[in-house]
Amino acid sequence: MDTDRLKEEKERGISIELGFAYLKLNNGRTVGIIDVPGHERFIKNMLAGVGGIDIVLLVIAADEGVMPQTREHLDIIQLLKVDRGVVVITKKDLVDEEWLEMVIEDTRDFVKDTVLENAPLVSVSAIKGEGLDELLKVINQLAVEAEQQAKKYNGPPRLPVDRVFTITGFGTVATGTLLSGQINTGDTLQIYPNGGTYRVRNIQVHGQKVQTAEAGQRVAINLSGLETGVLERGRVLAAPGSMRPTHRLDVKLQYLASAPKPLKNRARVRVYLGSAELLGRVILLDREELEPGAEAFIQLQMEESVASARGDHMVIRSYSPMRTIGGGVVVEPNAIKHKRYREELIKALSTAEKGTPGELLEQYLAANARLCTKDDLVSGTGLTTETVLDALSDLLEQGDAVELAYEGEKTYLSVQVLAKWEDKLEQALVEYHKKFPLREGYPKEELRSRLFPALSNKHFQMLLLGLEQSGNLELQANSVAIYGFTPTPSSAQSIAIKQLEEFFLANPYQPPGWSEAVQEVGLTKDEQEVLNYLLNQGTLVKVADGMFFHQRALAEILALVKNHLAEKGELMLGELRDILQTSRKYALPLLEYMDKEKITRRVGDKRVAGRALSQ
Question: Where would you find this protein in the cell (predicted)?
Answer without folding.
Answer: Cytoplasm
